[in-house]
Amino acid sequence: MSVKNITVLGSGIMGHGIAQVSAMSGYNVVLRDIEQQFLDKAMEKIRWSLEKLVTKEKITKQESDAILGRIKTIVDLKEAVKGADLIIEAVPEIMELKKKVYSELDQVADKNTVFASNTSTLPITEIANTTSRPERFIGIHFFNPPQLMKLVEVIPGQKTGPEVLNLTVDYVKSVKKEPVVCKKDVPGFIVNRLFIPMVHEACWLKQRENLKLEEIDSAVKFNLGFPMGIFELADFTGMDVIHKATIELQIRDKKVIFPHPDVEKLFNEKKLGQKSGEGFYKYSDEKYERIQLDETLAKKCNPISLAANILNNAAWLVTNKASDIAEIEKAAQLGLGLKKPIFETGREIGIKNIVTELNNLAKKYGVFYEPDPLLVSMQ
Fold this sequence. Notes:
One of its GO terms (biological process) is fatty acid metabolic process. With 379 residues, the chain is α/β, with parallel strands linked by helices.
């Protein structure tokens, strides 16, 4: 099994980014969407991105032309998937829409073609089972924007064949990305299982301790080794993305997340973060600005409950054989920008202190906080 021809379904931010990185690595790419105008917009963005690389002398004008020459745009689905070795679907994160796409795709794609869904939260096995080829179906989660982010989560479904997993991992490496395999199709995979619950936990911490956003964010940045504060990171990601992921995680596993109403409230008020000018913080219309965080503010907040939250979910992934500590640390470093390993932070705080914190929270607020057996054993 080898990959030469790739079809990307959906030409939005993720789709055209995946098409670009694939073409830059020498693949023949067909980019498909339901209307030509969407494809024209996507090609404009790819051209702009490549022009920037030429200006920065990362690639030559000739290389840029050759990359563009490897990308074709086609509206007709049957024609778009003809001869494709790998089809990467990047349509919006709506289960019914994805299932509809795959029912059409299954009819027209060659029986040997591998299907890969670029989803961040939806269950791979459930989507795969709507096709006649679940053994040739896999999850491939690029991070936004695909041109810049190094991490790609690879998620086999329950029936995914080992050769399909190997082929996907090889493809990810070939486009100069770092694959992390989530061995089980668990809610949130690796990165979102760590990140999304932590946003809610930060809201609870703010409410329970009557803290300011900047105090929590400073503690997260300076004490937990995050590249920015958790509320800042949430605004950067977008409340629409976080709210959608929260719902998906909750449907699949009640214990993964303890939702705080503020996230849904911001979403309903269309305060989506930077993209709308306001989320947890307010943003001016000018260029992207960073929130002012400092070590003095960090001293006003003890972030142990946040460290406990991310460690408990990391431990859950190990206990449930979805990943191991080394892969989780790699995913957190590349996907969340962590400057310090999660378990190293845990050891600095003291695993015993983390477990005590979780037990105290469980007594006050319920079973969601019960410590994972792995953490208990590490004391």
